[in-house]
Structure to design on (252 residues):
């Protein structure tokens, strides 16, 4: 059987994973069937490699991965293909903004994740010695979140998305999951028209718009649903199994 779609790019939280951060048995079954039939399955996540890789192991995937919203592309497990670093001066500005607004914040380096509880004075004095990938804010105060967003947009040089309605995720400008998946396509000799990209949040939007088929989960943010070609069941109702069974592997 000739397949129209050869790469399935999967967001993790709110998409591949249930709210309990597990992959359902049905979804595991259909992902393995897709791989058996020649579909490449790529995790495309805001998570760091260390946090995402155990799920790739569970699914027995050896294909490229997009992590930290596209700041890192892995050719294969532990084989880094591309990395985009954030300007340290921007990290300093974003940290100052977090302190000013009182929002919860976190930041990814290539080694680990820091947050408001673990951000020490020693770290602050040695920011230039770290390699930074992503910064994030979380606040349920809409006014504060809007103020942070407006300030970030004025700073420039940033790619601003989210992974929930209450947070903001910031990568270097031009770094997003769509660009990451394009690099994966280059590695695999595929075209973006052969990609199915699935997600639920604004950090999936660029990929959903750029893919041959953009899929929003039933639990996705409305903006994502509006831009998607297809809306499937939610992350707790085996939406990914539905995509594979009814679209990618469906025989006319």
């Amino acid at each position: 059987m000739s397949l129209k779609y050869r790469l399935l790019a999967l967001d993790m939280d709110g998409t591949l994973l249930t709210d309990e951060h597990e992959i359902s048995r049905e979804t595991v079954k259909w992902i393995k069937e897709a791989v058996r039939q020649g579909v490449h399955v790529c995790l495309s996540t805001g998570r760091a490699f260390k946090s995402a890789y155990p799920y790739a192991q569970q699914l027995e995937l050896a294909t490229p991965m997009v992590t930290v919203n596209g700041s890192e592309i892995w050719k294969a497990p532990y084989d880094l293909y591309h990395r985009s670093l954030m300007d340290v001066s921007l990290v300093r500005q974003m940290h100052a903004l977090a302190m000013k607004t009182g929002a919860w914040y976190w930041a990814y380096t290539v080694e680990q994740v820091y947050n408001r509880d673990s951000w020490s004075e020693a770290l602050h004095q040695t920011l230039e010695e770290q390699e930074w990938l992503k910064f994030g804010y979380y606040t349920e105060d809409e006014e504060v979140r809007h103020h942070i967003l407006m300030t970030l947009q004025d700073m420039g040089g940033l790619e601003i998305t989210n992974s929930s309605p209450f947070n903001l995720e910031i990568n270097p400008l031009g770094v997003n999951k769509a660009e990451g998946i394009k690099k994966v396509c280059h590695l695999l000799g595929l075209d973006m028209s052969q990609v199915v990209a699935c997600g639920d949040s604004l950090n999936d939007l660029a990929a959903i718009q750029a893919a041959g088929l953009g899929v929003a989960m039933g639990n996705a943010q409305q903006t994502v649903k509006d831009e998607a070609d297809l809306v499937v069941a939610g992350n707790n109702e085996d939406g990914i199994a539905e995509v594979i069974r009814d679209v990618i592997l469906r025989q006319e």
Remarks:
- The two ends are 10 Å apart (CA to CA).
- The chain has two domains: 7-83+176-248, 88-172.
